[in-house]
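dude i think i finally got it to work??
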Amino acid sequence: MGAALGRWRARLGLAICLSFLPIAAGAQPPATDSQPEPEGNAAVETVKFLAGGALAFVTHEGGHLVLDAAFDGHARLESIHFGPVPFFAITHRPDLSPRREFMVSSAGFWTQEATSEWLLTTHPDLRHERAALAKGVLAFNVLTSVGYGLVAFAEAGPFERDTRGMASAIGVNERTIGAMVIAPAVFDAYRYFRPRERWAVWASRAAKAGRVLLVLK
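look at this
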């Protein structure tokens, strides 16, 4: 229960993500596809899309750090390896209670899902808007959750992975956590392509709320 939990990320990747924040902060409200596409706009839209992914990455990690600070977890960077490849993890003191361990490990997914829900609720027709920044955020959130879920199914990757920490904290199989992480991501992706399917909206929200309620386990 006291195993240090963390998020494995390369230092260079974090630096790149932080460099995109000024672009994200200055982004204008999205225009619709009915407006003419300015010449050379594809490159700008690509940068905005990547900036959205970078912003979502920082938000994910920020969720972990906020709860680390709230629980006096003494967060710190620690060197780890994923096979022969060096990475870095944000770890905390090993004696947090199981409930707090679960919350710290879940925080990144919670921020992702809250952000995706806000985007898809306020911009239900996001697919048809010229909103590269928002689409980058949503793409990162969906793909990261699916990636974590697949790693959880394989029970592979660094010991510090979030899904392992969540499963250990509440005493369930990691594959169960993997399925619960993937489900809302799949529903959100479906909502992006089929925004008028109300069942998908409520299935997505129920899946997100259900995993939050595991904190009571």
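Residues 1-37 have pLDDT under 50 and may be disordered.
im so relieved honestly
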